[in-house]
């Protein structure tokens, strides 16, 4: 087991109708003026936003709003939020929505106390030094942003999508109400399930030797998610199934599933698949992140598995109870192939795409994605297997 530091300071308030405690929790934490950040209107249509505002009003917490944050949030909305945060002297960011809303709020929180342009922080031209605290109210279990150190935003003018990892991104509090996800469309539910599984696999396939306790945590979370997802599709208002999926999304990305299999001196995972997918959704911002991962991850797995077949066999047994019939090279290959097929078939069974062609992506688009990948990841990247831009081209092509 590798040495590691695990830091997860987010206080979690989890349960049915927890959203109605938002104002009470903010007031108890000493916050008095919130900037509510939300997306395209679902929190308005479902009454979620009104419940949050009523809770704030009852607790005496003043509030202003920034709505209209899109999926794959664009830096222009972040800049607008920074202006509001400064002008209104808010002391807390309150995103209500999915990962994009939470990531936008994190970027606003960092940018509001930075003298330059917030894109400097995401393009790595400057390092964040402070932030306004963030309290997250997730309505889509997927990104795990409610307890993670990451935020990702897009810059349409530069055709880039960049992430920033810092403990300053970790929300101080998350209000998690599984009942809010009852009305989540099936496609978003499926993309969320895919995203959280991908967060765990990025850490599992770090390239480092296994750690039995962490491996069992990782595989156990994935198995639980795969068990609960069909129950949600059968009955969208199944509270227990929704609750288990929501909690899994948090545990998948707060760092727990990477303890001991982390890269010494580096991140707790490989993160190549997220890098490849970020260029995909930078190419077309309408592509849902989890849906892109459903295509990219199996393609990457087929390309790299021979680098560390033992990790794939551990994953095969821990998640799917698949084992090779003997120690021969052919048997190992068959077991790994069956495992990747099972994983991809599961994603497809939820309604996720199998190929990039289903997004309308063509081979001519690969050069544009590689240009962004070079800026964000460099000429050589990855820890499970060191890859070049030509390797990335081959993975993209295999997924068409």
Automatic annotation (TrEMBL):
One of its GO terms (cellular component) is cytosol. Gene3D superfamilies: 3.40.50.1970, Dehydroquinate synthase-like - alpha domain. The keyword Oxidoreductase applies. Residues 189-399 form the Fe-containing alcohol dehydrogenase-like C-terminal domain. One of its GO terms (molecular function) is butanol dehydrogenase (NAD+) activity. Residues 9-178 form the Alcohol dehydrogenase iron-type/glycerol dehydrogenase GldA domain. PANTHER family: ALCOHOL DEHYDROGENASE YQHD. This is NADH-dependent alcohol dehydrogenase. The lineage of its organism: Bacteria, Bacillati, Actinomycetota, Coriobacteriia, Coriobacteriales.
